[in-house]
TrEMBL record:
This is Carbon monoxide dehydrogenase, small subunit. Keywords: 2Fe-2S, Iron, Iron-sulfur, Metal-binding, Oxidoreductase. It comes from Acetomicrobium hydrogeniformans ATCC BAA-1850. CDD domains: fer2 (cd00207). Gene3D superfamilies: 3.10.20.30, [2Fe-2S]-binding domain.
Length: 158
């Protein structure tokens, strides 16, 4: 199979890459672009550790081929920080102790950001639904939900 030329915009920066036809977006982000905040947990789209925002949608990057992202925009957890300042969601996660081992945190943040971008005032149930594809073995989810609610209540989603 032949390599494929792709152009993807990641965290606001356009990248032109030559990738294999079976290369996953997760691998492109981590290995080629050195954006290691996106984690590989299960590799089969079950844990959510690899969640990124692709054209406004939270997706498991282990299930997306890089070629499928050609011409599209990707936001990773590294893209949440602006000018050295944490995103309000990141600050809320810290304040509410929603970060323990940290492995699931990037995916949780990206799922929460995708939700709040579409629905700046979600209910608790909508928050739970938005993060249901993200597994956490440390926090029991309550602190994560409270952190997201805090960002909503303070209108800090943007």
């Amino acid at each position: 199979m032949n390599d494929i030329e792709v152009t993807i915009t990641v965290n606001g920066t356009k990248h032109r890459l030559t990738v294999g036809p079976k290369e996953r977006l997760l691998d492109t982000l981590r290995e080629r672009l050195h954006l290691t905040g996106t984690k590989e947990g299960c590799g089969v789209g079950e844990c959510g550790a690899c969640t990124v925002i692709l054209d406004g949608e939270a997706v498991h990057s282990c299930m997306v081929l890089t070629a499928q992202a050609d011409g599209n925009e990707v936001l990773t957890v590294e893209g949440l920080e602006v000018n050295g300042h944490l995103h309000p969601l990141q600050e809320a996660f810290i304040k509410h102790h929603a970060v323990q081992c940290g492995f699931c945190t990037p995916g949780m943040l990206m799922s929460a950001k995708a939700l709040l971008d579409k629905n700046p005032n979600p209910t608790r149930e909508e928050i739970k639904t938005a993060i249901e594809g993200n597994l956490c073995r440390c926090t029991g989810y309550e602190q994560i939900i409270e952190a997201i609610e805090s960002a909503v209540n303070k209108n800090l989603a943007s």
